[in-house]
Amino acid sequence: MKKIILVVLAAVLMASCGSKKSKKQVSQDFQINIISVEDNTIELECEEGCAWTKLSFTKAKFQPQAIDAYGMSIATAPVNTTDQLPDFLFNLERTDNGIALESKRGTAWTKLSFNCSEGTDYCIHTVDFNGVSSN
């Protein structure tokens, strides 16, 4: 009986060692630049913590798009524990005056919003674990 318990315990231990990161790991190592908001097109550039470097998509105002370390996602995407990328997930949507962000996981903030300059085609801001800053 003891041997069976030891074998089961060893199997459970080995299975848990296969994951490279814990679901409890909080990501702080990502930096995404919002480099352009023109008409309904939003352009992003990830400087750190992503599998992508540039991302561009078209969305009408008030239609959120989920963004994570892999690019465009869905707001209910599960945590990926097979790599070392950060576990952030947030919705980004265009508003009448700028951008609104809603964190789903992996950030210190829950909601952020900022205005874009009136009459310009760009809206340069940086989003990271702690919030947003303008460039």
TrEMBL record:
<protein>
    <recommendedName>
        <fullName>Lipoprotein</fullName>
    </recommendedName>
</protein>
